[in-house]
Amino acid sequence: MKLDLNCDLGEGEPPARTRELMRHITSANVACGGHAGDVASMTRCVLLAKQCGVKLGAHPSLWSRGDFGRGEACLTPEEFELLLLQQVGTLDLIARARGVRLHHVKLHGALYHVTERNSVLRHAYLAALRSYWPGLRAYSLAGGAVFQDAKRARVEVWQETFADRAYRDDGKLVPRVEPGAILTDEGEVMQRVKAVVRSGTVKSISGRPIAIAAQTLCVHSDTPNAVRLVRAIASLLR
After folding, report:
1. In angstroms, rounded to a whole number, what is the distance separating the alpha carbons of residues 76 and 83?
2. What is the mean pLDDT of residues 186-208?
């Protein structure tokens, strides 16, 4: 399988950046009203994905725009289920009205990380996918707990690695508040991508090689030089 290139979009970035990024990626994770996004931005992303032949995914998050969905995730399984129905369901309705079907779900920010740590919320997430959107894939941290449990729950899952984020030695991401967490240098990012493609590894922030069996590679739309990075990565993957 050729490595998929995904990007989180509809997060308040200028529409021109959304269009330019959409031209080079192969799947889009669209904010659906939690940390960012509204009906206009979701509609714009759906139409651009349709025009560019990009796989459309939902990018649900905590209902917390003040911290961009990256604060503490304090919610019950029932609240999590409702959140998913509201956010993924909204994007699904907008997409279907324009002849587009969702391809995947990728949790955002705190939800992405809490489902790796909290088995109750992880199981609630996978149960919701299985019940309401049985044809959709989950994009999740390569080698993580969501990936392992999704296989057991018979939810299709694509393992994700990151072109623009630093890794700790244990394979988890370096928190954004720590120095060196965001990779912006084009040369460094391209070395990361080449290693993923050629040897299935990434180097941790300490230089340790970590095995990565990924199907999809992420660049965040708010990373400095995101457009330049995505263009270069897309060219390499071709």
Report:
1. 10
2. 94
Structural domains of the chain ordered from first start: 4-164+215-237 (3.20.20.370)
Calpha distance 163→80 (Å, rounded)? 28
Residue 63: left (phi > 0), alpha (psi -120 to 50), or beta? beta
Judge whether 29 and 9 are in contact, CB under 8 Å: yes
Two tokens at 68? Answer: 């961009």
pLDDT digits 0-9 by tens, 89-112: 999 999 999 999 999 999 999 999
Tokens of 183: 């990779």
**Predicted pLDDT of residue 1:** 60
Short-list 138, 153, 144, 147, CA closest to 108 = 138
pLDDT confidence of residue 186: 95
Total count of residues recorded for the chain: 238
> pLDDT tens for residues 215-225?
999 999 999 99
- Mention every residue, 6+ apart, whose C-beta is less than 8 A from residue 150: 126, 138, 140, 156, 157
Which among 228, 220, 196 is positioned nearest to 210, based on CA atoms? 196
For 31, the token pair is 């904010």
Hey, what amino acid is at 176? R
**pLDDT of the residue at 2:** 86
Burial class (CB in 10 A: 0-12, 13-18, 19+), 20: middle
**Structure tokens that stand for 190 in this block:** 């391209």
Half-sphere exposure of 237 (CA within 13 A, CB side): 23
pTM: 0.95
